[in-house]
Amino acid sequence: MGKVYLVGAGPGDPELITVKGLRLLRQADLIVYDSLAPAALLKEAPPACELRHVGKRAGAHSAAQDEINRILVAGARRYETVVRLKGGDPFVFGRGGEEVLALQDAGVPYELVPGVTSAVAVPENAGIPVTHRKMARSFHVITGHIAEDELDYQSCVKQEGTLVFLMGLSALPRIADGLQAGGMDGGTPAAVVSQGFSPRQRVLRAPLSEIARRAVEAKLEAPAVIVVGSAAALEFRYHPPFGVVGSDSFYARLQKAMGKEAGKLQHVMRIRLNVTDEGRRQLCDAFSRIEEFGWVVFTSRNAVAMCERIAEENHFKMSRLDHVRFAAIGPGTAERLQSAVGHVDLVPESYTSEALGEALVQKASVEKILAVRAESGRSEMFEIMDRAGTDYEKVLLYQSDGELLVPAEEFGDMKVLVFASASGANALLDAAAQSDIALDLPAVCIGEATAEALQQRGCEPEFTARPHTAEELARRLKEWGAAEDQRQEDSGTAGIKETIGNREREI
What we know:
Blueprint: E1 3-8, H1 19-27, E2 30-33, E3 50-53, E4 56-57, E5 60-61, H2 65-78, E6 81-86, H3 96-106, E7 110-113, H4 118-125, E8 139-143, H5 153-158, E9 162-166, H6 172-181, E10 189-194, E11 202-207, H7 208-217, E12 224-228, E13 242-246, H8 248-258, E14 265-275, H9 277-288, E15 295-298, H10 301-313, E16 325-328, H11 331-341, H12 353-363, E17 369-374, H13 380-388, E18 392-404, E19 416-419, H14 422-435, E20 443-445, H15 448-456, E21 463-464, H16 470-491, H17 501-506
Parallel strand pairs: 1-6, 1-7, 2-3, 2-6, 8-9, 13-14, 13-19, 15-16, 15-17, 17-18, 19-20, 20-21
Antiparallel strand pairs: 4-5, 9-12, 10-11, 10-12, 14-18
Helix pairs in contact: 2-3, 6-7, 8-16, 10-11, 12-13, 14-15
């Protein structure tokens, strides 16, 4: 006579079976499995192994429990190793106890192999801990297959821990009403995790008074785990970070704009801006002749800050700027310029190099312009002024280089890459090419120049923030991140990747 092993297959992810359970599957002569056992695990069976499906689902029992008992006893008399593969743990509402009694009565040797129970694992996969030191010091697992008067709801309410209901989706209205009638506040957090660890996993959170109605509206499907209690409001799922490529100042502005969601950001490459010797010489020469210029134009807030610092170092008298009008490419630069000189006379409606050039051609047609910018800046503004015959002089003040702040292997953990400048995009892509960093990630950016730099390197951004401000980029990032989270939640984060194919159909 052989031996029957009651093996818990875990909550649905085939990787969550125990090492011992997997070893037994690979040695089995007969596997008797139910509907909640991951189908991918059956691929681990030897080629000659017989597979018997005895799945049970509410309203669709394919085998009565007495018949399953008989299959196990008969299998042990025919085969050496029989595996009874059950979803979750065999003794957590899995009728493992009934099967053990049947094996004992028949004198069949057996062994129990525990499994990860869905009562704990499915909520955990949704980010819900069933216990928490400050919220729930106990948890109570209750079958959802209850008749009208089978459950003492008042006793459930008195437990003051997390209540976990298995197989209770169809009874959810009765459970919610019963708990409230038993004294539980209707505002108590509740959650339903539908089809946990499958490609169709969905998570619904709502107050107890609304959870049943909203579960119907969401068309949630069994199997489902219901969680009631303070811990149901928690969401401890790991959110991959938004990798930011930009200067320290930009990263700080984006953090501020993200508000409570600033923790999602991670600075992955610092773009350092360095005044070049030639740029400093050009600027000091222009300062010495400042009376020649009617306009001074800045294409970044960094250029404003550098000019202000160099002016202070050279004891430049700000009164010499009284005749000068100032232009800025966008509101961020304008804000910094306002702080430095007290007024800004021109900001184009569209925050681009082209728009600034067009506006300058109209506003400063007969005055000489001093334009301060980075070495790697776009040339469209100057091309427009050249065509119009505008008199200008440019100072190429600074250059940029990138410093990686995370190891190459951590880039695979990012959810999206956020680019603040074209120079930053090129710096990261160059570093990736040199260090074999895989950047198969979505990208977003702050403006057209950055988008164009990415496109020239074969990367199409998910979106470009318009207007080109940290605040607008943060708003779009929050929207995009929420949409991506919902899409992943709808499709599931883990589950069965294979089917048993022809082998199951033959049984």
